[in-house]
Amino acid sequence: MIPSQDNTQKELLNQFLAAAGLNLPNETLGKLYQYADLVVTTKEFGNLISAKDSEKFLSRHIADSLVPYIYIQTRDKESPSNDSQQPLSSLVCRPKAVLSSIKWADMGAGAGCPVFPLAIAMPEIQFFAVEPRHMRVNFMQMVKEKLKLDNLTVVGKRFETSGLGDLDFISCRALSTFENDWERAQPALKKGGHFVTLKSFNNIVHLENDPAVHIYKYSLPLEEQVYALVTRGNK
User: What is the tens place of the pLDDT at every residue in 151-166?
Assistant: First the structure.
């Protein structure tokens, strides 16, 4: 049995989403499962993921990748749309015509987390998966075509030379320190845009009293440590 399609893994992911008050459509879940299978089973593009992580890809990596989407959804329900303390608030409440003009780039996309799960969950937004490693780029391009993700563009360059700019959102997952990632992202953000990153909480605890950042702590299924989604706006 393919690890990512294990029923226990599916149930853990669905419980994680349900705890956040979300119930994804079957079509969306199906694409998430298909993406997970491609990461776990595809071998011709090199070692995309370790055997240990393959066994918990849905509950660990897909769940983690969907945290920005969960955050957006829950803050839309809890916060006024003009609440400046909730930097991603009201994103999904915008009309589809407005959402289609939003540009979201992911730095160092690797094998596609978090950008592929986010592009699957938010099909109206334009996503860019930026990754310089040739084998990873070829893998992501193959997955994009298989899943028919017309809202996602794979960019085979370093982020600094990608030519992307005036972006509404820039994300990364466990890439470097928050400070280094922010320094790379900030020049390509539009005024009022936001940097979004997923880290171990232990690695960003020093930012708790920084007024420039917003921290959302969370836990993942079967994982002992605490994680954090950290955002910073470009004023």
Answer: 999 999 999 999 999 9
Task: Report the alpha-carbon distance of residue 39 to residue 46 in Å, rounded.
Answer: 11
With a CB cutoff of 8 Å and minimum separation 6, the contacts of 218 are 67, 226, 227, 228, 229
Angle, CA of 170, 157 and 162, to the nearest 5°: 55
Q: Looking at the chain, how many residues does it have?
A: 235
- Per the CB < 8 A criterion, the answer to whether 149 and 116 are in contact is yes
Q: Which CATH architecture has domain 3-79+91-233?
A: 3-Layer(aba) Sandwich (3.40)
Residues whose CB is less than 8 angstroms from the CB of residue 52 and which lie 6 or more positions away in sequence, other chains included: none
pLDDT digits (tens, 9 = 90+) for 79-94: 444 444 455 654 555 5
Interatomic CA distance for residues 200 and 165, integer angstroms: 28
In this predicted structure, the answer to whether residue 212 has a pLDDT above a threshold of 90 is yes
Q: Hey, what amino acid is at 83?
A: D
**Helix (H) / strand (E) containing 182:** helix 178-185
Rounded distance between C-alpha atoms, residue 151 and residue 119, angstroms: 7
Query: What are the residue ranges of helices labelled H in 61-130?
Result: 63-65, 67-78, 96-99, 115-121
Listed by start position, the domains of the chain span: 3-79+91-233
Closest to 125 measured CA to CA, from 98, 88, 161:
98
Angle of helix 134-147 relative to helix 26-41, nearest 10 degrees, comes to 150
Using alpha carbons only, what angle is made at residue 26 by residues 3 and 63, rounded to the nearest 5 degrees? Answer: 50
**Rounded Cα distance, 125 and 31, in Å:** 17
